[in-house]
Amino acid sequence: MEIWFGKELIKEWEENVKLERIRSFSREIRLEIFESKNKKSPVIIFSHGIAGYARVLLPFVIPLCKLGYTVIVPDLQGYGYNDGVKGDSEWNEHVQNLIDTSKYANNEYDGPIFLGGASMGGPLAYSAGAISSCVDGLVCWCLWDFSDKEFMLNETSTGKATYILMPIFNFLSKYMGKVRIKTYHLVSYDTLSDSKRFNTLVKNDPQAGTHITLKGAASLVLDSKPPVKHKDFTKPVLVVQPGEDKMTPKKYIKKTFDALGSKKKRYIEIENIPHFPTERKVFDRWADEVNKFIKEIIED
């Protein structure tokens, strides 16, 4: 954070964060909460993806806080500062983590609730938002269907072997489910940003998604199908997409966006930036787009 975004970002975290824990799947998960002074302000729940954890998302979060939003960022099970083994989690558990976070927000605050995420956090937010009655809309940095066959074949590290490996993963998960492997054997982190140093730091961060259990790896492939078809999803959706994203290329995001049945949906593409930008001005643009979208939804 200091190298790319400055010490002031960490200072803003220290001055504004409230740390809470909630029960989810008979375990506790940690929430990093940035409260607006106005209890009726819109709430944004923002999820990390497969490589990150709550604190990695600070560049996304702090600009939204400055605009007056309450922002809640959970460490999903198996990630960040939660107890337990790193990487010991499944897709459906992460979806439930977000549903339980939305229930917490609904009990604590009076404003509308928007659920979102960056990278894999986008598909997770979609699945949770499709189920949770507490969620009023989605605001995502990347949103695609992880179960899309074309994506699985072309963009995962296992490539064309993915569907050959599926029954093997399924079998191993039943008998060796707790065994961990390096996550980037499944999903490459080399295109996370344009900086090799940045990508290496994330790979080696002990709180990040460096490992995943065989049970978790199997669930990514077997359980990630959206619970509601995109054409049947009607809540408002904002998708902001990096134009030079090599980790989740924009053609998959456009494919999902075009399929959404939402009458109030907006796709914003920011040109010439990677999956995880390292310039703060990009995150200011992100916050501005989110702010405009949510204001329009509330005014309607």
Share of helical residues = 40-55%
Q: Provide the succession of SSEs.
A: HHEEEHEHEHEHHEHEHEHEH
The order of strands across the largest sheet is: 1-2-4-3-5-6-9-10
**What is the CA-atom radius of gyration, in angstroms?**
18 Å
CATH class: Alpha Beta
Q: Number of helix segments? A: 11
> What name is given to the CATH topology?
Rossmann fold
CATH superfamily: Alpha/Beta hydrolase fold, catalytic domain
Task: Summarize the biggest pleated sheet.
Answer: 8 strands, mixed
Question: What report would you give on this structure?
Answer:
- This protein is globular.
- The model has no long low-confidence stretch (mean pLDDT 93).
- 48% of the residues are buried.
- The chain starts with a helix and ends with a helix.
- It contains eleven helices and ten strands.
- The chain has an eight-stranded mixed β-sheet with strand order 1-2-4-3-5-6-9-10, sandwiched between helices. Strands 7-8 form a two-stranded antiparallel sheet.
- The protein has a single domain (2-145, 226-299), classed as Rossmann fold, CATH 3.40.50.
- It has helices spanning 2-5, 7-16, 58-66, 91-108, 121-131, 149-155, 162-176, 196-204, 214-222, 250-259, 280-299; strands at 17-24, 27-34, 43-47, 70-74, 113-117, 137-141, 180-182, 211-213, 237-242, 265-270.
- It is an alpha/beta fold and 300 residues long.
